[in-house]
Design a protein that fits this description.
CATH topology: Transcription Regulator spoIIAA
Strand content: 5-15%
CATH architecture: 2-Layer Sandwich
Structural class: alpha/beta
Largest sheet: 4 strands, parallel
Radius of gyration: 19 Å
Distance between the termini: 58 Å
């Protein structure tokens, strides 16, 4: 039996605000599930389709993964390598938090997939180059880049936002990482979907304005 979790902030289980961790509650959860499953079952925590926030990657959380779980990797949500973009999105973490988290995982022998989103609203070429720099750094630490493209999903704060065009330098960086296996994901299909969605939205606005 496999137990998997779906959470955008897995290490915050039991937290009162999603910011301050409740390590005791997290251990009760994982220890309890392990007790039910025994060693015949497997627990996957902080892996796809879940992810963890970089500032929550700490020795105490990684020790729980090593003690109770079966996954050899976790997904860290970086989203951007630009401090400006992270602040605009109110991510609540900094670029350095991502670097520190990846290094710490390496120390614990845990593989890392780092989520990045390309084409975020109002993203400049400089922002994208900051993202390229961070991608290259985490890859040097042994991580893989899980690449996404911005999608203005209904019901989200950015549902009416426009995706930013991807610079040639960013596309070259993506092209360079793909053959190495250090970058993966459905970003290209997501980009195609977003472009179609925005085109239809523009047509609808134009038609209803007439």
């Amino acid at each position: 039996t496999d137990i998997r979790f779906i959470s955008p902030n897995a290490f915050s289980y039991g937290s009162s605000d999603g910011i301050r961790l409740n390590i005791e509650a997290l251990e009760i959860l994982l220890k309890g599930i392990r007790g039910i499953l025994g060693r015949d079952g497997r627990i996957f925590f902080g892996t796809f389709p879940s992810e963890v926030r970089p500032e929550h990657v700490r020795p105490e959380t990684l020790e729980l993964i090593k003690r109770y779980c079966d996954n050899d990797n976790i997904v860290i949500g970086a989203q951007s390598g630009s401090e400006r973009v992270l602040k605009a999105l109110r991510r609540g973490h900094a670029v350095e938090d991502v670097k520190r988290a990846v290094r710490l995982c390496k120390d614990y022998g845990i593989k890392v997939n780092v989520d990045f989103i390309f084409g975020l609203p109002e993203e400049t070429e400089k922002d994208q180059m900051d993202t390229v720099k961070l991608m290259q750094e985490v890859v040097e630490y042994g991580a893989r880049v899980h690449a996404h493209y911005f999608m203005p999903l209904p019901g989200t704060p950015l549902q009416d936002a426009m995706a930013s065009p991807l610079s040639d330098k960013l596309l070259q960086a993506i092209k360079g990482l793909l053959p190495t296996g250090r970058l993966f994901g459905q970003w290209a299909k997501q980009r195609e979907f977003t472009e179609k969605l925005l085109k239809r939205r523009s047509q609808y606005v134009s038609e209803t304005a007439d």
